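Here is one chain, start to finish.
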Amino acid sequence: MKISARNGLAACIVLVLLLAVVLPVAGVAVVSAPPTTLPGTAVSQKAVVTANASAATVTIGDPVTISGSVTGRTVNEDVQIWVFAGNYVNVSTVAIKSDGTYSRTYHTAGLPPALYYVFVQAPGADGTFDLDLAQSGVYSGQVVTAGTGALLFNFTGTGSVHDAAASNALVNALNEGGRDDVYTKTTFRLAEQAPSPAVTTGAPAATSIPLPAPTKKSPISPLAILAGVGIAGLAYTSVLRR
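Its structure:
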C-alpha cells in the first residue's frame, strides 16, 4: 500500500508528540508535584506558649497561680516554670493537660516582698528542655545547658544576677543559637499586708466641777469704826471712875 507524503508527514508529527510526552526532553527540568499530605498526618510546628498570674499584686500569705496554654504541638509535653526575685528562684516542671493548658499554684508565706519574674519554657521539636537549674532548691541555683551542664549564669553567689538582670540573662540564654525551646514571661508583685487601720476610741469628756464662788466680804464703813472706838472709849472711862 502506498503512503502519500502528506500522510507520512502527519505520522512523523504524531510520533514526535508522543515521544515528547513519554520522554523528558534533555535540558528541560521536570517539576514534580509536591507530595500530598494524607488525611490525619500531623504537621510539626513550633509551639506557642501563654502565661499569666492570677493577680498583678498578691499579699504575702495569699496563694498565686501561674496558668496558661501551649498550642501548636502534636504531642503533649511538660512546661518548666521559673519564678525568681532577688536570691529566690524556684523552677518546677508542670504537665500540660489534654486541652493544652497548664496551671500551678504557689504559696507565698515567708517570701520577701518584691517584683517576681515568671518564665514558662516549653521544649522544642526534640522534646527536651535546653536549659535547666543544676542545683534544686528555692534559694539557690545555677542555670546550665541541659546535657552538657555548661554554666550559663548564677542566681546566687559571686557574679550572680538578680531581678531584671537575671531576666535578661535568661532571655539571652534561651535565644542563643542552637536552642529551640519556646518561652513566654510575665510578672507579679508580692506585697506586705497593709496594717489594719487603728480604731480611734474617743476619750471620755472631762467633767468640769465648778468651784464654789468665793464669798464676798462687805467692807467695814468708817462710821462703824468710829462708833466702835467711841463705845470702847466710854467703857474705858467708866472703868477709871470706879
